[in-house]
Every structure is written in C-alpha cells, then in structure tokens.
Request: fold
Amino acid sequence: MDLGLTGKVALVTGASAGIGYAVAEKLAEAGCKLIICSRTLNSIKQAEQSLIKDFIDVEIFSFCADVQNAEQSQSLIQESLQRFGRIDILINNSEGASFSGEAVENLSDDDWQTVFEGKLMGYIRMSNLVLPGMKNQQWGRIINIVGTSGKEPSSRLIKSGVANAALMNFTKSVAMQAAKYNVLITSVNPGVIDTPRHRQYLEVFAEEENQTIDFLRGKITNSIPIGRLGFSSEVANLVIFLASECASYITGITIAVDGGMSSSAF
Ligand SMILES: NC(=O)c1ccc[n+]([C@@H]2O[C@H](COP(=O)([O-])OP(=O)(O)OC[C@H]3O[C@@H](n4cnc5c(N)ncnc54)[C@H](OP(=O)(O)O)[C@@H]3O)[C@@H](O)[C@H]2O)c1
Reply:
C-alpha cells in the first residue's frame, strides 16, 4: 500500500522514547523527512543516532525543546522551517499531567493552572504555529496523542482526564475549521502502553496503594480484554495511517488503541 508519505516533512515532539520514538521510526520507514525533539539533549541525540542507523537514507533534524514552553516551541518551529522550508505533519506528543489519586479538593488553583499550561496548552500552541503554513500549502496533518482518560474518567487520573477531554474537543473544533484547506486533525487515545511513562505510573501507583508493581501490572493486564499491555509500535501503526493519504477523508475524530479496554460503545 502506498502511504503517500515519501518526502513529507514530519515533526514529532517527545520523540526520544515511548510512543513518540515509535512514531518517528514508522515515519522514517515511510520515507518522511524528520524533525524530532525532546527536553533532554543527550536522549534526543541518541534517538537521532538510532534512527540514522536503522534508516540510513533518512533526513533528520533533532532539536532540544520543551514543547510546553512558548518560546522554545517558537524556536523549534523557526529552526525546523529554516531546515526544511515546510512542515506537513505534526505529531503532538508530550508529557501528560502528574499521576495522583488525591482528593480533588486538595488540588489548588495553581495545580490546575499547571495542568492547563502543560500538555493541553502545549498541543494548542504547537498546532497554532503550524496551521498557517499547512493551510497555505493546502495539505497538512496534525495528530494529537491524547489518552483514554479523557473519555473514560478515572479517579486516579483526574488531572490528565480533564486535559485530555479538552484536547479531544479541541481536535474536533479545529478539524472543522481546517478541513476546507485539506488540513486534517485527529487524536489517538492510547490505552495502557508499555513505555517509560507507564512504568513510572506503576511506581507511583504501587507506593500509594502499598502494593507491588507485579501485583498492579497483573491487575491492569486483567482489565484489558486482549489480555496484555500495548506496544508503542501498535499506537504508531494508527498514527502513520492517519498521517497518510489512506486517511484522506478522516478528520476530527479520536480513535483508541487500547486492546478493547474502553467500556463505552462509541
Ligand atoms: N503510555 C501509556 O500507557 C499512555 C496512555 C495514555 C496516554 N499516553 C500519552 O501518550 C503520550 C506519550 O506517552 P509515553 O508513554 O510514550 O511517554 P514517555 O515514555 O514518558 O515518553 C515521552 C517522550 O516525550 C518527551 N517529552 C515529554 N514531555 C516533553 C515536553 N514537554 N517537551 C518535549 N519533549 C517531551 C520525553 O523526553 P524528555 O523527558 O527528554 O523530554 C520522551 O521522549 C503522553 O502524552 C501520554 O500522556 C500514554
């Protein structure tokens, strides 16, 4: 199947590990020119080296930036445009809110402000920075890596749940505005994916619940109909499809990659 991605310029944020790295691999395999970023210089340089090793022909530009910071996001886009002249695909992928099962009345206004200024505002800002160019060239894809907690609230994930619900709503509204320019915007909701972030979540959860990590991993696995955690590559497979010409009539929706874990029918 021709994905129609050869030569497209794709920017993947949060690309040194986990889901972001897996997406960068698939985009390189599909023939994209790549811009990758993360907050840690060493890790993004290592990711760049691994991608060059595995995909010798890939044109790649790595940048150290925190995409939840306005100035750094602006610099990332400016440098990317200087390097490649255009951005065709943006994969918004960065750290979600901190995990905590604490009572909502114990969360301060500042705690909530941190949530809104984090992944939510980061994805909105990055989208704003690439949308004018995409509309102008009459082709673009923005894919937001969100999370099932936006649709299926959990008492342990209240902060990320609120931000994720807003991001799903943002995806739909902006998609409606941008569709006539052939700029398609979608979200992907990973379920439980075995990444460094998930392992960090298990550590916090185990400490709060006074349980072992193995016990909690087993409990989570039992709640997934497919009977195992997901792989980052399985999320990346959907992202590549949504970025490709094969998805030319799909916009505004959010799709879960969760092994059947979400309980809602729609
Ligand atoms: N794993 C899951 O089960 C799961 C479930 C639902 C939703 N999600 C969502 O999927 C996304 C990716 O999760 P993951 O599990 O792949 O995370 P991960 O394993 O922690 O990897 C995150 C990657 O993003 C980079 N990063 C994080 N915040 C950043 C920022 N502000 N600016 C630039 N780079 C940043 C990290 O590198 P540096 O630390 O060096 O910046 C790393 O490369 C997140 O939005 C998460 O909420 C994941």
Summary: The first helix runs from residue 18 to 29.
